[in-house]
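Re: the request from the purification team.
They wanted to know what the chain is likely to look like in 3D before they choose a buffer screen. I agreed to run a prediction and write the result into the notebook, where they can find it.
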Amino acid sequence: MDVNIHPSWKAALSSEFEKPYFEHLIQFVKEEYKNNVCYPPGKQIFSAFDHCPFDKVEVVILGQDPYHGPGQANGLCFSVNDTIPMPPSLVNIFREIQTDLGKPFPPTGNLERWANQGVLLLNAVLTVRQSEANSHQGKGWEHFTDAVIQKISDEKKDVVFLLWGGSAKKKGARVNRANHLVLESGHPSPLSANKGHWFGNKHFSKTNAFLEGKGKRVIEW
């Protein structure tokens, strides 16, 4: 099956694209986009992969499913398009960066700048119906993104996995922790963050300290 995704990922995941579940998934997604308003735009479904080729992956951040409001989702987890107000989880991410690294709030919540530095911003589910959170769960995306995590774990070394919240931690079970750094905390959503499960995790400075220790370039968060 021909999937419009960066060539490095096409090569890495070629066997996955031929599996029956993936064929069913693509048919489901095509029908959903034809009959409903869905996000992100079709051309941005695989944006996380297009901005961060397989050979460039240094950090993986796991989200759940795309934002389901108009104009928000751009194919990168936690990210919104330039003119869109930042959702609460993203505000809390920037608040932690501000405390951890002393960086000011950025003018935009578009995280393409992270992706272009080697941060794979991967949602567990890559599509959603407008105003219906989790509406594309259980259709096959989870199998696909599990395979992505497994591939990174098996074929790369010294990648930092940032697992925020219960569902991200479950997906992180596929990561070989002898070969990679796994950092876990609560989710940055207000519900979790305000209970003390997010703020102070220092994941951003810890990530950069690890990368620097491996002779890699740090991320400009």
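For the purification team: The first helix runs from residue 7 to 12.
Please add any questions underneath this entry.
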